[in-house]
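Section: protein folds

Sequence with per-residue tokens
===
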Amino acid sequence: MIKNFQANGLPALIGSLPMDNHAEAVKLVFRYTPEIPLWVQLPVYKEEGMIAQFLPGLPGLVVEKERAYIDTGAGAFGEDLLKFYEDYMAVLEGEGELSGSRFVLTKDTAGGFFEFTKQLKAVSVPPVAVKGQITGPVTFSTGLNDQDGKAIFYDEQIRDAAVKLLALKARWQVRELSKFGVPVIIFFDEPALAGFGSSAFIGISSDEVEKCFKEVIKAVHSEGGIAGIHVCANCDWSLVLGSSADIVSFDAYSFFDRFILYADHIKKFMESGGILAWGIVPTSKAEDVEKETVDSIVIKWEDEVRDLEALGFERSKILAQSLITPSCGTGSLSLENATKVLRLTREVSDRLRKKLTL
């Protein structure tokens, strides 16, 4: 599966921080996770919201003060859609440059990316890998509506355009970050998968979800990148573990008891070389962040890992195929608690690696 990267229990982060300064945010990332640093999303800016950040480039996009939607009823929509596919095919067939296309991130909505690459140029010790992220196709397409308030996922044509937009924006990230000469990891953030199978997602099939995943992951792999899927809640893990993702990122703090129910899928995933990103450091409740310590989290991880040992894996092998992460981004926490999350992630990783001499 992954040829050029060893996880080895290293610490990594999930995109967001509760700050308003990109330069300071990136410095914090390098302080705690220099081995696998990432660019940061600052949700204090509305243009860096989970959907908003990756909207530019979509055909039919209308952005009003408090609302963004796709207007399929506009007279120019058909022409706009055609131009989108022309631009897409031009990039795919090498007739157009990806770097100058509608499929790039811009400083307007992703200032953290450009600040990250700026600071990355100045580091004295190269990282083990670098990490980027993008909203996953299911979350993106169920979180964005058309002019009538209907999620674009239910419009096959618009969904296809959205998936292709995300695929090429992920591909662009890999290409840009690959310039630093180390492996590139891209996480697709999919919190909406928690609703799959419920009445909220009625009419969405597993085949449709699998097709979305296949296309965006293939785009990352086509540039030599490593693809991860991050879900910060419970979901149908067979969809994620059975995909072509190299890394599966899950909330090990709150939902391990649900995750381990998919033991056969986990075993197959790990036997194929897949990496588990253990979201073992809590982020969803301030009181959990405040009460936990390095000792308590290490004990929790060791309790959970026994269930994987029962599947026939040695603990050292499990850690070798693991990353230690927060359960989700820290954008909704206080800066004090967010900084504690980063510190705990670092120190839990250090403790586990020392115990198992990785």
About this structure: The mean pLDDT is 95. The chain has 13 helices and ten strands. Strands lie at 10-11, 61-63, 68-70, 130-135, 145-146, 184-189, 226-231, 247-250, 275-281, 322-326. Residues 20 and 42 are 6 Å apart (CA to CA).
